[in-house]
Amino acid sequence: MLIMKNFTTQYEIAKQNANEFMRKGQITQYFEALLEMNKYKRLMVAVVAN
Fold first, then answer.
1. CB-based burial of residue 34 (10 Å sphere; 0-12 exposed, 13-18 middle, 19+ buried)?
2. CA dist., res. 19 & res. 34, Å (int)
3. 26 secondary structure, DSSP code
4. For residues 34 and 22, is the Cβ–Cβ distance under 8 A?
5. CB atoms within 10 A of CB 35
6. Residue 2 neighbours by CB under 8 Å, 6+ apart
7. Is 47 in a helix, a strand, or coil?
8. pLDDT at residue number 50
9. Neighbour-count burial of 33, counting CB atoms closer than 10 A to its CB (0-12 exposed, 13-18 middle, 19+ buried)
10. From residue 32, how far is each of 10, 11, 13 by CA, in Å?
């Protein structure tokens, strides 16, 4: 489950970054952070499914 913990940590970091970018009005970086969150969310689902 170390992989899952790593994905969760990376997801939370991306989430914090997204919130910070949105607060600062940096829309492009905000969308990139959302895409990164989506990537880690999909990886977590794949780990749970297997």
1. middle
2. 10
3. -
4. no
5. 11
6. none
7. helix
8. 84
9. buried
10. 14, 13, 13
Quote the Cα angle for 41-17-1, to 5°: 35
Q: Which two tokens stand for residue 13?
A: 């970091």
What pTM value is reported for the model?
Answer: 0.88
| CA gap 41, 50 in Å, rounded | 15
Q: Could you tell me the two tokens for 45?
A: 């689902």
> Over the stretch 8-47, which tens digit does the pLDDT of each residue have?
999 999 999 999 999 999 999 999 999 999 999 999 999 9
The structure tokens 């959302």 sit at 34
